[in-house]
């Protein structure tokens, strides 16, 4: 937060995450992304007459997991409500959501920067509730007819809506907090949080608190920003919007309450927010309890069993790693921020190496660097912890120095071969010249045809000997075998 | 005996014994429908070809000694509110004219598995909203006992087709009395089961928390037979009860001795037709003669039943019917945007124009009235005063029933205040029309079961109905009591003259 600005930026977020269920919230249709339009649908998610919803318990349990990790209070009794509005991507004319009795409320999530670039920032969670997603409308502008095409594959996909308190004080904090939230949800296996595929969406509410000369705090009208498709966009949009509101305040002195809450859309290429049509926020959704579903009760045993399967959240995992492996908080932070799989890789490596800091250094300087360069993931990474531990062990043994080891490591990554093999292939475990000569003599004696071919000028025939040589001694250098053989054949003339 | 006169129980037995084939049986009813539907208008769609093919298949399987279902060959008529994958399903609305669902309702699937033969889809009040069948977009149904009168509603077609010998059995749905009231006005037997006893999946929703499917037939025994097939838990309906289905037909023939029947004094207050009152009192006497005892009980909040019902039902309906918007299926206005460019005809967008005009054209006046009532009552600022309060009163009404059932086993009384009224008599007075549900809405609001069966006739020859209501899941007792009554009386055997008695 800037201490020089003449105002405080007040930010609250509304985050929608798609839960990682195989099937939709109220029917058995697949939630897989990218299917041909309207192929993952049934009477229920098409809203056909007579169709009924049945709750997906798995979705509810995943949402519970998220709420518990966000330190929310879980309601022992929760119900579903209908949110009524007309839109073509909402085939029933209502969305099944939760209104006055969400399944959880009143939690928080804290984000701490190990480098101390910003103050620890604890953001209150107003509520977490479950709801179904709508379909997708695609306006066919190109055809020039103004036609709208509807894809209902997404309709009925389970969404968890997380609403924060207006506790964030800067666009940078908002971005950092979102990163932490995403990390948590991915750790929990609640969502893949893929913004490109729409499995995480963020709306932000922002206004300014401006101290007045008389000591009063003037508050600018709250603006809800939509259409932000990356955390970077969130930060940019909030920065833009705070500046816009400041200018607007200076020009109009308009305060909250005197004008209705406004919705503005973020235009990423233009880098500005634009006012959206007014009527959308003045809708009356006529919420009422969904009569087609029964209320859900949650017992302490269910909560305990969900807690049992949750795993350690990032915030405590950072501390655990730092303490257990005696690595700096910064290292633990970097490792944890890369996700559960990388942490597992690191712990496996550290166990084998026996020294956390050495393992961490290799993770930070080599593994992560290569993953970043290749845009790869640790699960696809060719060198497994045992291979890397082997390499590090050889350094300790004095077989080679670290810079040589880096070359070996790079070769291990590209070839997928183990240390020994790479070391041998690189000619590192040298075979003596005498050994090579006696090996070549053996080969020539066994291959008179190749000898004849080379004699008649076809030197390429010597290539047939190299494979055989490698079989006899994997460490031989192929180029050397070839040269020696040709020399020996020439010497026969 | 000819199939037209047989009870469903006897007809199933005759089919099983080979006294008659499924094709013969279906043909008789299809011919009867062809001869009489023109004057009754009970059917919106008749599936002669499908029914005969199905019947032939059942006959072939039976002949080959292959297994057949418990209702093998029994012709059944389906209210057009039930989704059928092989017949159109319109809810008697222009909105769904020609609509063919891609799936069968759970009830339809169960009947199919039991090898029932579907004759066709019966007429009804549009989206089951009405008590006279005059709200059908495809013309009113006429009462077989007097063609100038209503058969009641909303399951008017189902009631009239059974009364008119066009089907031995029909399936109806009951949201505020839509099975029991037309059964009463048409002189047949109709059961509204406990909420959740029969799956609602594939029943086109009017008011989800009140809707329940049930059988309509000539006798309680026939209703018991059908219940054995249609009742049962459906994991596809979250509100369906996971409770075993009793063998209703085995539980019928038990004495009524010691059964305590409640009588609500307010049911006999002003407004009840004297001939109906007399018929109902005589029914109590018959039940007492059979060993039951009659006791006065109070349902203190019953007087709020109609206003409560006319908030809860329209609120749910306003949401349930939002899906009929012209966007995905059903009626869409044909001449959208036929205006000069730049003029939207008063609509804020082409989308809104599509919604407004499609719904204005597709829905009839009563449906629109209820959508508006419900939309209003759910709106910000009115929700507490109307919908929320109605839910609280509903809980009181349910509690009244549960309290009363502490002291009695059943509650008896009239089904409706008057016998069948003239077509057109109440069409200009929606409030008078709403009162036809006076004695029936409480059952739905309380979520309990009720049965209606004939207990006499007026001097002019119109049937009078008697209603019994029971605690949750006490269908065996409802059916047992009605069956006992029918063993002692022959009101349910009388056939209307208006469209000709079945030839023997
Ligand atoms: Zn589906």
Structural commentary:
The complex is a heterodimer of chains A (493) and B (504). With 493 residues, chain A is of the alpha+beta class. Chain A has 16 helices and 17 strands. In chain A, a hairpin with a 4-residue loop joins strand 14 and strand 15 (272-275). In chain A, helix 7 runs parallel beside helix 9. The N and C termini of chain A lie far apart (85 Å). Chain B is built from 15 helices and 11 strands. Helix content of chain B is 37%, strand content 12%. With 504 residues, chain B is α/β, with parallel strands linked by helices. Classes of the chains: A alpha+beta (493), B alpha/beta (504). The A-B interface holds A 43, 46-55, 82, 84, 86, 88, 91-94, 146, 148, 150, 279, 284, 286-288, 291-294 and B 82-83, 89, 91, 96, 99, 101-103, 105, 200-205, 207-209, 235-239, 315-316, 318-319, 321-323, 325, 327-329, 348, 350-351, 355, 375, 378-380, 383, 387. The structure holds zinc ion. Zinc ion (ZN) is lined by residues 24, 27, 29, 41-42, 44-45, 156 of chain A.
Q: Any key phrases for this structure?
A:
heterodimer, A: 493 residues, alpha+beta, 3 domains, ten-stranded mixed beta sheet, 16 helices, B: 504 residues, alpha/beta, Amidase signature (AS) enzymes
Q: How many helical elements of chain A? A: 16
Bound molecule kinds, no repeats = zinc ion
Structural class of chain A: alpha+beta
Helix proportion of chain B: 25-40%
CATH class identity of the domain at 3-264 and 407-493 in chain B? Alpha Beta
Topology as H/E string of chain B?
Answer: HHEHEHEHEHEEHEHEHHHHEHHEEH
């Amino acid at each position: 937060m800037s201490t020089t600005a003449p105002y405080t930026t007040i930010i609250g977020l509304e985050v929608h995450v798609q839960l990682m269920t195989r099937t939709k919230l109220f029917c058995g249709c697949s939630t897989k992304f990218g299917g041909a339009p309207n192929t993952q649908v049934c009477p229920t998610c098409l809203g056909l007459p007579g169709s009924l919803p049945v709750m997906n318990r798995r979705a509810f349990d995943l949402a519970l997991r998220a709420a518990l990790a966000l330190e929310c209070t879980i309601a022992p009794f929760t119900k579903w409500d209908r949110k009524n509005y007309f839109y073509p991507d909402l085939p029933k004319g209502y969305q099944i959501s939760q209104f006055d009795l969400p399944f959880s409320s009143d939690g928080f999530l804290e984000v701490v920067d190990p480098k101390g670039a910003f103050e620890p920032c604890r953001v209150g969670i107003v509520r977490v509730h479950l709801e179904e997603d709508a379909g997708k409308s695609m306006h066919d502008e190109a055809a020039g007819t103004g036609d709208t095409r509807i894809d209902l594959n997404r309709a009925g996909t389970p969404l968890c809506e997380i609403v924060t308190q207006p506790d964030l004080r800067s666009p940078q904090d908002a971005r950092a907090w979102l990163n932490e939230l995403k990390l948590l949800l991915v750790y929990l296996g609640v969502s893949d949080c893929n913004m490109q595929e729409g499995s995480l969406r963020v709306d932000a509410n922002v206004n300014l608190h401006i101290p007045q000369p008389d000591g009063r705090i003037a508050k600018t009208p709250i603006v809800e920003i939509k259409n932000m498709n990356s955390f970077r966009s969130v930060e940019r949009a909030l920065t833009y919007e705070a500046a816009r509101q400041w200018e607007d305040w200076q020009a109009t002195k308009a305060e909250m309450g005197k004008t209705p809450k406004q919705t503005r859309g973020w235009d990423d290429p233009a880098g500005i927010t634009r006012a959206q049509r007014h009527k959308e926020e003045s809708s009356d959704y006529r919420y009422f309890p969904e009569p087609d579903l029964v209320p859900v009760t949650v017992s302490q045993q269910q909560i305990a069993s969900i807690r049992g399967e949750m795993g350690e959240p990032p915030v405590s995992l950072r501390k655990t790693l730092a303490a257990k492996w005696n690595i700096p908080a910064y290292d633990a932070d970097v490792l944890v921020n890369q996700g559960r799989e990388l942490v597992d890789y690191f712990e496996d490596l550290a166990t084998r190496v026996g020294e956390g800091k050495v393992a961490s250094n290799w993770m930070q300087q080599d593994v992560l660097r290569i993953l970043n360069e290749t845009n790869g993931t640790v699960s696809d990474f060719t060198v497994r912890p045992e291979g890397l531990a082997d390499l590090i062990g050889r350094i300790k043994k004095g077989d080679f120095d670290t810079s040589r080891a880096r070359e070996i490591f790079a070769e291990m990554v590209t070839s997928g071969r183990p240390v020994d093999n790479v070391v041998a292939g690189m000619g590192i475990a040298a075979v003596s010249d005498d050994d090579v000569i006696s090996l070549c003599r053996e080969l020539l004696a066994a291959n008179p045809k190749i000898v004849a071919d080379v004699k008649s000028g076809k030197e390429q025939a010597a290539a047939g000997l190299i494979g055989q040589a490698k079989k006899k001694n994997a460490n031989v250098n192929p180029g050397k075998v070839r040269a020696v053989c040709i020399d020996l054949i020439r010497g026969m003339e | 005996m000819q199939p037209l006169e047989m009870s469903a129980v006897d007809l199933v037995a005759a089919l099983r014994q080979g006294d008659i084939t499924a094709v013969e049986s279906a043909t008789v009813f299809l011919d009867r429908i062809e001869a009489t539907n023109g004057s009754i208008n009970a059917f919106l769609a008749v599936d002669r070809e499908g029914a005969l093919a199905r019947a032939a298949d059942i006959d072939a399987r039976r002949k080959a000694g292959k297994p057949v279902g418990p209702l093998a060959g029994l012709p059944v008529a389906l209210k057009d509110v039930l989704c059928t994958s092989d017949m159109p399903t319109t809810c008697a609305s222009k909105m769904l004219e020609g609509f063919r669902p891609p799936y069968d309702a759970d009830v339809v699937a169960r009947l199919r598995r039991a090898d029932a033969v579907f004759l066709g889809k019966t007429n009804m009040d549009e989206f089951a909203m009405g008590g006279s069948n005059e709200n059908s977009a495809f013309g009113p149904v006429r009462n077989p006992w007097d063609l100038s009168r209503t058969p009641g509603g909303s399951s008017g077609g189902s009631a009239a087709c059974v009364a008119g010998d066009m089907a031995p059995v029909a399936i109806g749905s009951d949201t505020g009395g839509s099975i029991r009231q037309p059964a009463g006005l048409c002189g047949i037997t109709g059961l509204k089961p406990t909420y959740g006893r029969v799956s609602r999946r594939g029943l086109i929703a009017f008011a989800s928390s009140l809707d329940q499917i049930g059988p309509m037939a000539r006798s309680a025994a026939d209703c018991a037979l059908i219940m054995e097939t249609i009742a049962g838990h459906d994991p596809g309906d979250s509100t369906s009860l996971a409770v075993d289905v009793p063998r209703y037909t085995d539980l019928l023939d038990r004495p009524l001795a010691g059964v305590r029947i409640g009588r609500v004094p307010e049911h006999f207050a002003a407004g009840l037709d004297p001939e109906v009152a007399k018929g109902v009192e005589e029914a109590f006497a018959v039940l007492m003669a059979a060993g039951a005892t009659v006791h006065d009980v109070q349902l203190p909040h019953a007087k709020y039943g109609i206003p409560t019902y006319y908030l809860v039902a329209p609120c749910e309906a306003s949401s349930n019917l939002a899906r009929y918007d012209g966007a995905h299926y059903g009626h869409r206005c044909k001449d959208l945007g036929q205006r000069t460019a730049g003029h939207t005809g008063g609509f804020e967008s082409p989308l809104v124009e599509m919604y407004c005009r499609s719904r204005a054209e597709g829905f009839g006046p009563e449906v629109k009235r209820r959508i508006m009532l419900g939309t209003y009552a759910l709106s910000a600022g009115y929700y507490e005063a109307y919908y929320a309060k109605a839910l609280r009163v509903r809980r009181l009404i349910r509690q009244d029933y549960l309290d009363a059932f502490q002291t009695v086993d059943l509650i008896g009384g009239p089904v409706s205040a008057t016998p069948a009224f003239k077509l057109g008599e109440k069409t200009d007075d929606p409030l008078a029309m709403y009162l036809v549900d006076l004695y029936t809405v409480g059952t739905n609001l309380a979520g309990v079961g009720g049965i209606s069966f004939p207990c006499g006739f007026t001097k002019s020859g119109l049937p009078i109905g008697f209603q019994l209501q029971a605690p949750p899941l006490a269908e065996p007792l409802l059916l047992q009591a009605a069956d006992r009554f029918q063993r002692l009386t022959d009101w349910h055997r009388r056939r209307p003259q208006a469209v000709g008695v079945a030839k023997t």
